[in-house]
Structures
1.
Amino acid sequence: MLDIDTGEQVETLYKMVQIKGGKRIDKFKTTDIKQALRFHKWYIKNYREGLLMEILPKKKHYNWKDKSIDYTFE
């Protein structure tokens, strides 16, 4: 995914989620968009229901106590 502010490539996590009865059920997650779309197509064909796709960019967090950098998807 391309970041609008900086113009650089940002790693993203694509997450397929089912919402059923007010609860979120994670079905699939990957960093490849083609793989995520292929899974969604397969899931619709087999179960005849759609999934919600979340796109989470990778963020850098600095821990000032340990003076370390952690990367998480948010």
2.
Amino acid sequence: MTMAALPAQGARKSFLEALRSSPIANLVSLRYFILRFSTAGSALLAGLIQTFVFARVLEPELFSIYILVGTLGISMWLFDLGLPKILFVELRARHLAGESKEQIAQQANALALLYAALVGIGVLICFAVMAARPSVSTSDSTWQAAAFALFFLFSALNLVWFVLRNLSIAVDEFIYFETLEALRRVVHIAVMLAMLIGLPFAVFLLAANALWVVLFTLAVKRLLARGALTRQLRGVFSRLGTFFRINRKAALRTGTHAASELYIHNVMYLAVPLVFGLGAPTIVLDTTFKVFFGTLVLYSAACDLLVPKQTAAYAARDARTLIRATVMAALLCAAPAIAIGALLMFAANDLFALLLGPAATMPAAITPILLVLLAAGVAKTVANFLLQHTGFFRDISRLALAIAAGTTAVVAIGVIAKLDLIQLLAIYTAAYACGSLLYLALAIVKPIRLAPHSQEG
């Protein structure tokens, strides 16, 4: 070891010791803290790298179509209906109480298989629609349709992965799951960057989906060992029926909430291409939301860290610990918000020019819009996580539906008034910020105030 390496080693040791003695260490595993933020940061980086690479290997119009296909794949979340959260609440309660998890594991099997089937149907529909598009030749049309379908599959499989994430957290296997997530992000980024040195786009699509196969295999094996899934695959339909019969009201509420949230996050993807067309406007919108949604992933990582402590405190009716954990979640969310906000304030032009190259030019007015979205996202994510994981499904479903209606009205008014892209994004941002404040108020009134008294299903 060289003398120069000694100070660096001492600095790392001091940093880790400071973390271990910080309030964070009393609320969350240090290893999980580092790992979760690493995967969340790489998720944000992966989104930006995808924009960087696609802008250089695809024509602008084809790039914008892949944006829409990927958005439709992510929109398979519409079928999520918040049902994994119901499984989480039930499985977490049994895990903490040391009770049998077999019944919930059987329902988890059925739900994961249902989501996989829905993704498969979506892939077939995507292929059929894209194959029907005009093309130079039948072979070109078939290849393009297959490529779009593979990209749709790559995006849509997040729907099934989310079920396994919730199950892993419920049985305290979050560190193993995040290790798999880290593998996923590193390999995905590496394969994308390889396209810049000549890797064919088709190979990227095949490799990205092959990676999913490996990840699902490893995750399912660990969840089987922990009793969160079962090897019994017979009777899937009857178990789905049992799940929906037992959780009918909760499923309706979580479904309303999930669909409303998905709509709120994607309504601009519907409005902008219809009003302004494909090409630069859609690319500008997608780049804006890549930064925003990528930062939301960081916020989710922060909130994920505190979910085990929050849910244990709520189950024990320990309001003090619940409040401490929630405040810590907010502080952890604020850190990336401030860092990314500062980067945008001082280097937005250079950042966006690097990402997009000749594909499009980001207007300077995007920066203040993003700053407001980042701040609003902190309040909404912290409140939403707490409300979901403590089972306040009825309240969040009503609130999300009201916010979706308000957002629709605001965007519709903007379209009718013929606002330009920046103005439309600005009024959408205002509506999003108002909705975030409502979520925050609900979190204070419900789980925090009621923690010592009762839990709603």
